[in-house]
């Protein structure tokens, strides 16, 4: 039985990590106006700090590859959880924007990047028959964060001020320390057993391990550079690129887009709740069908990406609240579905033994964040409307399916 005590703790770890990371991002968004006024800084400076945290979170995925091979999953998870919590607490003690930027970009971001990669790896190693469902449970944490932590952070802010709110968020993040501590990690079954002949060979070669070439080869083996040359890796990378670009653009520009169309800020913010509900349902919509073999992961991926694109492309022709409730619900549901399916497809096409390097390299390609932040804003500056921007961004999830379709036609997956 996969959902035994060990499996439940691993699923809880993935859920908690997504919950806390979503809490941090959403909470900083709520605190942004207060931080801007407190430090008399421009809005874009606070925005850059948040972007730097996300960027460092992505780049640190490769660090997880090296640390996991050297120390193992559980110790790295526990230490990274402690470091992330300390970084968030330091935000509440900051006396300038530089201090906040250093805490978020140098401490919090990399720690969360390592945690996210390793929690996905643990899910892939433990679950087989119910892997899609387990991935969905993990991603559901972000949906809960979208629903709960915006009003909760506002309550903290009104009651204790921005410093007290930051300290409370840091305290909440400590829950992931407990989640990491109770995880039972088994040694990967693909690890090779070293025999006497291998030991003798190793002892004969110890004099060469300090050479520059040997050092370089150890690094190459650790980060698995060869995965970048495999077509199957680019299949999952492009699927991840499409959904990340689209959904991040939605998170950044949906509320400003509605305000340009004439909706009040209150109504625009309230419509985001529909996406959060859809996001929660999307994490589990495909899991039971895939686990039971009723539908292939690739088929579910194609359907979900097409529906996600559709929710963006029809946006310019919607002008009432009811239609936006439906479209944002669809956007959230199929965005979370694609995120979940990317994890499942990665294990299917690359194998369990390469999950660490696969997830690490996928997070390293951070261009999706840059495009999602730049392109819609640039189009708005040129045309005075977000309509074309939503169409262009909405087509990316569909375009990202091209490698997957090629792989299916070649029968490589």
Overview of this structure, please?
With 413 residues, the protein is mostly helical. The protein has two domains: 1-185, Up-down Bundle (Growth Hormone, Chain: A), CATH 1.20.1250; 210-413, Growth Hormone, Chain: A. It has 18 helices and no strands. It has helices spanning 5-38, 43-59, 61-71, 73-92, 97-126, 131-173, 175-181, 196-204, 212-223, 231-260, 265-282, 287-291, 297-313, 321-350, 355-364, 367-383, 387-399, 402-409.
Layout of helices and strands, plus pairs?
Blueprint: H1 5-38, H2 43-59, H3 61-71, H4 73-92, H5 97-126, H6 131-173, H7 175-181, H8 196-204, H9 212-223, H10 231-260, H11 265-282, H12 287-291, H13 297-313, H14 321-350, H15 355-364, H16 367-383, H17 387-399, H18 402-409
